[in-house]
Write a structure and sequence with these properties.
alpha+beta, Jelly Rolls, Phosphorylase Kinase, domain 1, 8-stranded antiparallel β-sheet, binds 2-acetamido-2-deoxy-beta-D-glucopyranose, receptor, signal
């Protein structure tokens, strides 16, 4: 029952055979095909697919398929009215993506339904080598050819032709259609996979072929693509022909389908296809054919991307690379990341450079929450002694005195140590003494700074849990804040010794003019710091460097010259002329005498820093001594650099030469061989 009902439905939906009563009135319509189709003769690769699609070939090589309406079209008697027919069909030629397709579909009028002896490929399943071109083949075909076969003079691989017993088309043209809407011819790609409508009309011995895409084109174009005069009765002497389709593949392959077909003897009675009922054409999805070239390209691309990303990562890693060792864990909070310092100083921008010297460079920066900072970059070659040095630096960070420049932390990189301290907006004292861009300090300001530094140095020597030697007291290491308060800074060269330990067994460091004589023999001690502080006292009061090679010989050594002034009875005459005579003579005398006392070449004659603080604050009177007291006013032999010693200025702000030479083990601690020369 169900099957018969199905058959009935099929007949209603797929086939409407209008008239069979008279053979002359042959007329039929297929809006899609039915698998139970009885009126179709199929052979070769022709199949009717479940969705109603008539497949002539699938995409396999060397196939051909035929589909004929199994009753012939009878031309009728010669005497009857003129011979005509009209047909309209929809086809689709679908190639596999990325490959060429072939060979084509033909609408056929043939004396015989048996074309099994024909050949596929360029013969389109219509002829073989011996039947092609022979009038006895009795085949009229309209070919939609998608391969250009030179042997048949094909014009291109996308053409429509009329073949009269011969694959050499009697007329052909590239596939196109006339668009009535746009008033011009538009080309059409047969192998696009899109459904294509074909109308073939024969009337008054004229065969017209008209093409149009199915999409957006309901009406038949008003102008045919091909028009050819043909004498059908001459071709088919029996006055009858079978109607159908043929298609073939060769080494080039495509799926070739007929979607619907309507035929009528009479153009006016041709039933129009119901487009909405036509089956849909499957599109082969892009087979993920692993194209080796594409994969190679993708791999290369991926490698490039990875290389670039890796490069960026390595660049950033290297840019911000630091050296961290397990022992540093305890200093964690004092450790700054290089990245943060890099950002704080805007990449160590030259505009923010505060100074440059033999050790490295100092940059101004700004850290969030902390505020303005000064970052000193010290270069070092060796890791040796690093642990000790960092420990010292960190311990210095724990030193708390109102007149010490606060050390905030450090950072270590390969070949580099960075010390972070608070930025002192006033700059260094030597700038006020020797540079015209800063106003000269008044006498009371100078004394205040001297008291500040004395107090700070006293704290280092006695106030902390260890004796801390500064080792490099000089005007360029004394900083001022906005209120011109003095701060002792730059511990870069300071080292520690435990209370009571032998303080002398350390390398000699310092700056010319601030270095006590015994440095070379017994090394640094609190006494050598006092000497340097004495030189600083004289420098600030007189506005002159401790040693000035450009001065006349008698004035060259400040200590000697101040003592000379005293001997001549005018100690105050040594004072800085820029003070313009505004000073307290008693105070000036006290400070100069204290300076001379501190710079005595007899270490034991020098006061301690505790005593210095007492004297300078006038809590205690200076001991009695004269310019002739032994050790007073004696210039220490000045260290002259021999060519092998690099003489560099320790900061831009100060042109005071300092002697530095790289020791092979640790270039950070400036140690050197002292050479006695040019003694006076
Ligand atoms: C195509 O059709 C041929 C015969 O008609 C068949 O042998 C072959 O398996 C089909 N190929 C595919 C891919 O369906
Ligand atoms: C060509 O086809 C005809 C029938 O159509 C057949 O008799 C003949 O043998 C075929 N020739 C070749 C070479 O296949
Ligand atoms: C064929 O086309 C010509 C114009 O090229 C036209 O005059 C003629 O009427 C057409 N015949 C049919 C049957 O459509
Ligand atoms: C359109 O194509 C037809 C057939 O190839 C040709 O006869 C006609 O001149 C063309 N018309 C235009 C406007 O190109
Ligand atoms: C067609 O061919 C037949 C037989 O060859 C001939 O009798 C007839 O006159 C031809 N018709 C035309 C219109 O040429």
């Amino acid at each position: 029952m169900a099957q018969r009902f199905h058959l009935l439905l099929s007949i209603i939906f797929f086939v409407n055979l209008i008239s069979f009563s008279s053979q002359q009135d042959l007329s039929f319509i297929y809006n899609g095909f039915n698998q139970d189709q009885v009126n179709l003769h199929l052979d070769g690769s022709a199949r009717i697919q479940p969705n109603g699609l008539l497949q002539l070939t699938n995409a396999t090589t060397q196939q051909m398929g035929h589909a004929f309406f199994n009753r012939p079209f009878d031309f009728g008697s010669a005497s009857s009215e003129s011979l005509s027919f009209s047909t309209h069909f929809v086809c689709a030629l679908v190639r596999n993506p990325g490959s060429d397709g072939g060979h084509g579909i033909a609408f056929v009028l043939s004396a015989s339904m048996d074309l099994t002896q024909a050949e596929p490929t360029q013969f389109l399943g219509l002829f073989n080598i011996s039947t092609n071109g022979s009038p006895s083949s009795q085949i009229l075909a309209v070919e939609l050819d998608t391969v250009q076969s030179a042997e048949f003079d094909d014009i291109d691989k996308n053409h429509v032709g009329i073949d009269e017993n011969n694959l050499k088309s009697s007329v052909s043209d590239s596939a196109s259609y006339y668009s009535d809407r746009e008033g011009k011819n538009k080309s059409l790609t047969l192998l696009s996979g899109d459904s294509i409508q074909v109308w073939i009309d024969y009337e008054d011995s004229l065969l017209n072929v008209t093409l149009a895409p199915l999409k957006n084109q309901k009406k038949k174009p008003s102008k045919p693509l091909l028009s050819k005069s043909i004498n059908l009765t001459a071709m088919f002497p029996d006055r009858r022909a079978f109607l159908g389709f043929s298609a073939a593949t060769g080494s080039l392959i495509s799926h070739q389908y007929i979607l619907g077909w309507s035929f009528s003897r009479n153009r006016l009675s041709l039933q129009s296809l119901d487009i909405s009922r036509l089956p849909s054409v499957p599109r082969p999805t892009i087979k993920k054919k692993n194209n080796p070239l594409l994969i190679l390209l993708l791999v290369i691309l991926a490698l490039i991307v990875m290389a670039v990303l890796g490069g960026i990562y390595l660049y950033r890693k290297k840019k911000y690379a630091e050296v961290k060792e397990p022992w540093e864990k305890q200093y964690g909070p004092l450790r700054y990341s290089y990245k943060s310092l890099y950002k704080a100083t805007r990449g160590f921008n030259k505009d923010g450079r505060l100074g440059k010297g033999g050790f490295g460079e100092v940059y101004k920066g700004t850290l969030p929450l902390v505020g303005d900072i000064a970052v000193k970059r010290l270069s070092h070659d060796a890791e040796q002694g690093m642990k000790q040095f960092v420990a010292e630096v960190v311990t210095m960070g724990s030193l708390q005195h109102k007149n010490l420049v606060p050390l905030l932390g450090y950072c270590r990189r390969k070949g580099e140590l960075l010390l972070v301290s608070k930025y002192m907006e006033g700059g260094s004292v030597d700038q006020y003494l020797f540079h015209d861009d800063k106003p000269p300090l008044s006498w009371s300001q100078r004394v205040a700074v001297l008291r500040d530094i004395a107090s700070a140095l006293c704290y280092l020597h006695t106030g902390a849990s260890q004796v801390v030697l500064h080792r490099d007291i000089k005007a360029s290491n004394v900083m001022l804040n906005g209120n011109l308060q003095g701060f002792l800074g730059d511990f870069g060269m300071a080292r520690f010794d435990d209370h009571g330990a032998n303080l002398s067994a350390t390398a000699a460091v310092g700056t010319i003019g601030y270095m006590a004589l015994e440095l070379t023999s017994t090394g640094t001690s609190t006494r050598t710091d006092v000497y340097a502080f004495g030189a600083f006292l004289l420098e600030v009061t007189c506005g002159r460097r401790p040693f000035d090679p450009e001065m006349a010989v008698e004035k060259r050594h400040l200590v000697k010259w101040v003592c000379e002034c005293w001997r001549k009875g005018s100690l105050v005459g040594a004072i800085d002329a820029r003070l313009g005579g505004k000073f307290v003579p008693g105070e000036v005398e006290m400070v100069l005498k204290l300076g001379l006392l501190c710079t005595s070449i007899v270490p034991d004659s020098r006061p301690t820093m505790e005593q210095v603080v007492q004297y300078i604050n006038r809590h205690q009177m200076l001991p009695d001594f004269s310019p002739d007291t032994p050790g007073i006013g004696v210039s220490t032999p000045v260290l002259m650099g021999i060519p092998s010693l690099a003489i560099t200025s320790t900061s831009v702000a100060s042109s005071t030469p300092s002697v530095s030479s790289s020791s092979p083990n640790n270039s950070m601690f400036i140690s050197h061989t002292i050479v006695y020369g040019d003694g006076r």
